[in-house]
Amino acid sequence: MILEDFYDVIIIGGSYAGLGAAMALGRALRSVLVVDNGDPCNKQTPYSHNFLTQDGKTPREITGVAKRQVQTYGSVAFFNGMATAAGTTKEGFEVMVETGETFKGKKLVLATGIKDILPAIPGFAESWGISVLHCPYCHGYEVRQQKTGLLANGDLAYEMSALLSNWTDDLTVYTNGLSTLRESQLIKLRQNNIKIVETRLSKLEHLEGYIYNLILEDGSQEAADVLYAKLPFVQRSTIPLILGCSLTEEGYIKTDSAQKTTVPGVFACGDNASKIRTVANAVAMGTTTGIMVNKQLIEEEF
């Protein structure tokens, strides 16, 4: 498709949420441009789960099929590259991409995702999404009853321990330094046979991303098959902040029930606006966003 200068909607981000929005808008006969650089955060994840009809497929398989299906709607175009900036115009918005080109549209959808801040532990990045995991609902079944570690501290460690105990009876919490768990929490964890290790991790030994040993700073070793970690994050794109979108205290883009941000005409969906990081949720949010964007356009045009 030949790229146009002006669209009804520009979507920044072409993964599950962005493609969900694009399909809904394509089916609503809207001219849409999806800007995506093809570098999803789950690129290392071998399999995706908890998504009906797609359970067990690779993320690349799912997005590949999704993109081909969206491309059947002739009003949806794709630009392969990174959006670097965005601003408002009299007609709506303009989006600048890394090649220097500028595209304009009436409405803007941010499906830009988030970026996890990985600890500087050798082997961690290589294992992230493979055997170092963030979500038991996405991967817990496949590693059920395996020797499991949790990298967390304080209230988060306690809450995650309770959650993970649903999938394994062999759980160790690695606080990676002095524990900040309260005494009442420690008692409860011990009652559930959950071990606490305060010595810092120095290395994850793995084979092609599948860990088998945790090396501690004192030189000791702990066998492990899987390690869960709840990591801090930042918005993957600076565009939400450039536009002035408000964030929640946790760092997500603030949206209402119609996925509208605090900037009129700008919508957000997917991981950048929700703590539920599942494929199914991203698709659902994207579809809802597409419907709500079209609704707003109809109200303005009718």
SSE blueprint:
Elements: E1 6-12, H1 16-27, E2 32-36, H2 59-70, E3 76-80, E4 83-88, E5 93-97, E6 102-110, E7 114-116, H3 124-127, E8 132-133, H4 136-139, E9 148-151, H5 154-164, E10 171-174, H6 183-191, E11 195-197, E12 201-207, E13 210-216, E14 221-223, E15 226-229, E16 233-235, H7 239-243, E17 266-268, H8 279-301
Parallel strand pairs: 1-2, 1-6, 2-3, 6-17, 8-15, 9-10, 9-15, 10-11
Antiparallel strand pairs: 4-5, 5-6, 7-16, 12-13, 13-14
Low-confidence stretches: none
**Form type:** elongated
Order of helices and strands: EHEHEEEEEHEHEHEHEEEEEEHEH
Overall mean pLDDT score?
96
Helix fraction, binned, reads: 25-40%
Q: What's the alpha carbon Rg, rounded to whole Å?
A: 21 Å
Distance linking N and C termini: 29 Å
Q: Name the assembly state.
A: single chain
Classification by helices and strands: alpha/beta
- Our count of helices gives 8
> What's the count of strands?
17
Beta fraction of the residues? Answer: 25-35%
